């Protein structure tokens, strides 16, 4: 088995260029004896291993009338599996100093493992049990259900949460992206173990699995480890179809709440990650609202006028839509002024686009700061996972800064016009009614 | 999903507990990187710590000043944090926003934060820009320029920050009231961000007075963590910070301690916005700075045994076994210049009330005081601490933060290095002794957060 693996493991050297000095990160593409693929950055400086993995098909595959299934399951995979009940499973993780957590995103169901190298084999067994033989026993199901409902209730009067939820409902009516990932009190109350098992059987499989590993493990051992983790899963996922969609713009929604500061959120159409102009749009949005100090919105709303503590906007890409979203918060009596300012600035930017200097500064920051995403094991693993999920290819780490450097002012102006010129954003306000 | 074992907002406000800033399990020690840490002092009194780590070609540069909210003059609450904001405005050498613009231009990240005991500014950049960061930061230690206009605008920004963090969050509002009740003499009962009515009156001169008195090399600690050697740091620091004279008089850190508390107190907030009632119990406890030797280490381990994670006593007994609570836990913050606090909390499940939660926590404490912790519980807690120190080595900037915090509180790098040894030396008797001494009802403030419809009480 090891021999086969050695020939199957292709090693590609990726160079992350830091201005004036090149440092190499070796990203190996590892194919396991069982046929799974993982990306690996081997680093033996510290005796730890981080493995991030994701199954395509997250909360967007919840039953339409029952949001929250993926999220509830994410709280239960480590609450009893195989021959271990909930307490035994948690005690074992604790005894081995293993951190194993699951999370439901919109398009992915993710797992995150961190272990000491000496416990890697035992950790692989814990992952295998949790993904292939969860017990879903009454006590943990009811306990975790109660925690989720408690958290939903807690958020019912949190202005930012309320605004975010209203924003997605309005932007994506009749689409999974419009439903809350954590569900509603009603839906979470109604989820049965059968619902969990159905979702589990559909989504946790080998053909929709993506893996990234960083740390004290070599390619041969990693191959054996991931086979141990995922070898018992079915080959094929059974993911229901999710339609491509565009966020519905041009709506104004107000939610009344007696609070001193109004939360303002906005959303509008963006472009998808696989669009050839995605990088153009990413940079165009960054200049308007990304990165804090120095963005147009930050300068106009915070630095010039002191109207907010935080303000920002950025492009987001889900598997089935592209979007631009952002927001700020301001004293209630200033909310009208701030909404008008946001709309004006966005439209003006759509018409004029960035200046040559703004583009230069954005390029400098975005290319110069890229290596800062690769400073710790978990950050590196997260980057490798994201690049795989976006199908960008193993040499993306090497190409990404060149793609940004190559952008012309015309290209970014065109992207700014495409995203912002018609100003058709849906805007949600949560706070005291507008006077 | 995130299991409900983390510290809720209300407790965080009181104890100043935030992930990554406590010395508790996670930030210190283990052999390799800590053995490479070195320290020296420039002629002008600036203390320098170097944390070499060449795994990525990046450095984190941070300067810590011994000036926190506890040092503010009466009536000027929030001025330390306000000055932190104004430090980004500009200097005689580099005009408004020049520092942050330059950091962005080289692809770096910069920010700052204010705590009760310190103010810190930090940048993470490619290693070859370290000298540039020192040049800018040393310039800002000396040559700050702020206009009345900038002060007026930025004051609105901090008021918006307060609305976001506190006024829009009932749990945070209760947290302020709990802290005000818990700390009867020291300044930890005054919010770091300030009381709104005093923030509204803060002036340019208030900020400059603080700046002139406290922003001097002899009142600061420089930490550089990352791909760098001690020699490189020494050379760059001498050429930049080294050119600044010491202050006329090094400020003596203000340390006010608490009188023996005699009265259990209850602080309640009922607010329509609260949909999930929560009860927290805060005990006045010493910090690493004010405790007898070994006590703070024992308190760290006690917090771990009682209330850290899903295998802790409180989670096992109240959340898993009896199903009485949705979540429950405990926490302790040892890194303070003055006295600190130890907290337990619980969120009721089903139709249980906050009175039930209070009784449940009381029963757990009574059992703890009667029977003590077990040898096995203590060993498991120590093992968690050992593992977390190994995991912590993955992020040298965080280790740099631990050293910066320790030194700015007057501790030494050996205190940090030997922390794990001191943890190992803690006995069952030590843990039981601090539990008996500090989990005394007279030392406590109970915070009750409820809705207004009656059933959430």
Would you mind describing this structure in some detail?
The complex is a heterodimer of chains A (435) and B (457). With 435 residues, chain A is of the alpha+beta class. Chain A is 42% helix and 22% strand. Chain A folds into 2 domains: 2-230, Metalloenzyme, LuxS/M16 peptidase-like (Cytochrome Bc1 Complex, Chain A, domain 1), CATH 3.30.830; 252-383 and 393-431, Cytochrome Bc1 Complex, Chain A, domain 1. Chain A contains 16 helices and 12 strands. Chain A has a 7-stranded mixed sheet with strand order 1-2-3-7-4-6-5, with helices on both faces. Chain A has a 5-stranded mixed sheet with strand order 8-12-9-11-10, with helices on both faces. In chain A, a hairpin with a 5-residue loop joins strand 2 and strand 3. The longest helix of chain A has 18 residues, at 138-155. Chain A is globular. Chain A starts with a helix and ends with a strand. Chain B is an alpha+beta fold and 457 residues long. Chain B folds into 2 domains: 9-14 and 256-450, Metalloenzyme, LuxS/M16 peptidase-like (Cytochrome Bc1 Complex, Chain A, domain 1); 19-243, Metalloenzyme, LuxS/M16 peptidase-like (Cytochrome Bc1 Complex, Chain A, domain 1, 2-Layer Sandwich), CATH 3.30.830. Chain B has 18 helices and 11 strands. At the A-B interface, helix 2, helix 3, strand 5, helix 5 and strand 11 of A face helix 4, helix 6, helix 12 and helix 14 of B.
Q: Measure the end-to-end span of chain B.
A: 27 Å
Nearest-integer average pLDDT of chain A: 93
Biggest sheet layout of chain B: 6 strands, mixed
Straight-line distance between termini of chain A: 72 Å
Largest sheet of chain A: 7 strands, mixed
Q: Supply the CATH class of the largest domain in chain B.
A: Alpha Beta
Content-based structural category of chain B? alpha+beta
SS field, number of helical segments of chain B: 18
Helical fraction of chain A: 40-55%
Instruction: Provide the domain count of chain A.
Output: 2
Largest sheet, spatial ordering of strands of chain B? 1-2-6-3-5-4
CATH architecture of the largest domain in chain B: 2-Layer Sandwich
Please identify which CATH superfamily of the largest domain in chain B we are dealing with: Metalloenzyme, LuxS/M16 peptidase-like
Name given to the CATH architecture of the largest domain in chain A: 2-Layer Sandwich
Kindly provide the name of the CATH class of the largest domain in chain A: Alpha Beta
Order of helices and strands of chain B: HHEEEHHEEHHHHHEHEEHHEEHHHHHHE
Poorly predicted residue ranges of chain A: 1-22
What oligomeric state best describes the polypeptide chains here?
Answer: heterodimer
């Amino acid at each position: 088995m090891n021999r086969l693996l050695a020939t199957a493991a292709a090693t590609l050297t990726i160079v992350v260029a830091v201005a004036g000095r090149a440092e190499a990160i070796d990203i190996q593409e590892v194919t396991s004896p069982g046929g799974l693929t993982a990306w690996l950055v081997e680093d033996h400086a510290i005796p730890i291993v981080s493995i991030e993995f994701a199954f395509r098909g997250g909360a967007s595959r919840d039953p339409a009338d029952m949001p929250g299934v993926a999220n509830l399951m994410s709280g239960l995979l480590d609450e009893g599996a195989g021959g271990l009940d909930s307490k035994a499973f948690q005690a074992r993780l604790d005894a081995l100093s293993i951190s194993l957590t699951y999370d439901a995103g919109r398009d992915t169901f993710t797992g995150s493992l961190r272990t000491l190298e000496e416990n890697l084999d035992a950790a692989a067994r814990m992952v295998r049990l949790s993904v292939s033989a969860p017990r879903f026993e009454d006590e943990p199901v009811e306990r975790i259900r109660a925690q989720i409902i408690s958290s939903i209730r807690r958020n019912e009067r949190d202005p930012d949460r309320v605004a975010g939820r209203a924003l997605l409902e309005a932007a994506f009516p009749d689409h999974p992206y419009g439903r809350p990932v954590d569900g509603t009190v009603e839906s979470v109350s109604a989820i049965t173990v059968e619902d969990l098992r159905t979702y589990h059987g559909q989504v946790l499989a080998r053909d929709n699995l993506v893996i990234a590993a960083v740390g004290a493990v070599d390619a041969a051992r990693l191959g054996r480890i991931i086979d141990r983790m995922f070898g018992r899963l079915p080959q094929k996922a059974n993911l229901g179809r999710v339609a491509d969609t565009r966020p519905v713009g041009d709506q104004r929604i107000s939610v009344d709440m007696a609070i001193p500061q109004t939360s303002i959120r906005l959303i509008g159409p963006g472009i998808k990650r696989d669009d050839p102009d995605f990088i153009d749009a990413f940079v165009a949005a960054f200049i308007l609202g990304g990165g804090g100090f120095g963005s147009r919105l930050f300068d106009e709303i915070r630095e010039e006028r002191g109207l907010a503590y935080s303000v920002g906007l950025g492009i987001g890409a889900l598997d089935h839509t592209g979007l631009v979203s952002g927001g700020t918060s301001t004293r209630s009596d200033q909310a009208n002024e701030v909404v008008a300012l946001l709309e004006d600035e966005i439209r003006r930017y759509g018409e004029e686009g960035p200046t040559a200097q703004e583009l230069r500064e954005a390029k400098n920051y975005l290319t110069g700061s890229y290596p800062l995403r690769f400073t710790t094991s978990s950050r590196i693993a997260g980057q490798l996972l994201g690049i795989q999920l976006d199908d960008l290819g193993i040499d993306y780490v090497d190409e990404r800064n060149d793609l940004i450097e190559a952008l012309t002012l015309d290209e970014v102006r065109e992207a700014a016009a495409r995203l912002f010129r018609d100003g058709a954003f849906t805007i949600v306000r949560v706070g005291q009614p507008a006077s | 999903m995130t299991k409900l074992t983390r510290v809720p907002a209300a407790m965080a406000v009181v104890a100043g507990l935030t992930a990554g800033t406590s010395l508790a399990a996670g930030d210190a020690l283990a052999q390799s990187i800590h053995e490479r840490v070195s320290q020296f002092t420039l002629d002008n009194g600036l203390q320098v710590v170097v944390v070499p780590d060449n795994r990525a070609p990046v450095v984190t540069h941070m300067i810590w000043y011994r000036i926190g909210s506890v040092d503010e003059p009466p009536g000027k609450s929030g001025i330390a944090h306000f000055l932190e904001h104004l430090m980004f405005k500009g200097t005689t050498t580099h005009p408004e926003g020049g520092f942050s613009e330059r950091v962005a231009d080289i692809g770096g990240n910069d920010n700052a934060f204010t705590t009760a005991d310190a103010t810190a500014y930090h940048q993470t950049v490619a290693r070859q820009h370290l000298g540039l960061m020192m040049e800018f930061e040393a310039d800002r230690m000396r040559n700050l320029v702020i206009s009345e206009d900038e002060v007026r605008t930025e004051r609105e920004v901090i008021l918006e920050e307060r609305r976001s963090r506190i006024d829009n969050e009932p749990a945070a509002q209760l947290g302020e009231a709990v802290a005000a009740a818990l700390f009867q003499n020291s300044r930890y009962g005054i919010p770091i961000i300030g009381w709104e009515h005093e923030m509204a009156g803060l002036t340019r001169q208030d900020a400059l007075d603080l700046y002139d008195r406290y922003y001097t090399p002899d009142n600061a600690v420089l930490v550089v963590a990352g791909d760098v050697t001690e020699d490189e740091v020494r050379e760059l620091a001498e050429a930049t910070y080294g050119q600044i004279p010491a202050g006329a008089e090094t400020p003596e850190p203000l340390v006010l301690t608490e009188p023996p508390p005699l009265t259990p107190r209850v602080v309640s907030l009922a607010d329509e916005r609260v949909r999930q009632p929560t009860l927290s119990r805060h005990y006045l406890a010493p910090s690493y700075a004010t405790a007898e030797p070994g006590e703070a280490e024992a308190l760290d381990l006690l917090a771990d045994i009682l209330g850290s994670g899903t295998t802790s006593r409180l989670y096992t007994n109240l959340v898993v076994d009896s199903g009485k609570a949705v979540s429950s836990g405990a926490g302790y913050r040892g890194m303070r210049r003055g006295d600190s606090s130890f907290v337990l909390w619980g969120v009721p499940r089903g139709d249980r009330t906050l009175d039930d939660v209070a009784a449940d926590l009381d029963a757990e404490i009574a059992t703890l005081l009667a029977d003590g912790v077990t040898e096995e519980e203590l060993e498991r807690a120590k093992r968690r601490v050992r593992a977390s120190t190994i995991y912590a080595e993955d992020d040298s900037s965080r280790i740099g933060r631990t050293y910066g915090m320790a030194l700015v509180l007057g501790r030494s790098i050996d205190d940090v290095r030997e922390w794990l040894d001191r943890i190992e030396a803690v006995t069952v008797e030590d843990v039981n002794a601090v539990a008996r001494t500090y989990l005394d009802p007279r030392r406590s403030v109970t915070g009750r957060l409820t809705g207004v419809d009656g059933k959430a009480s």
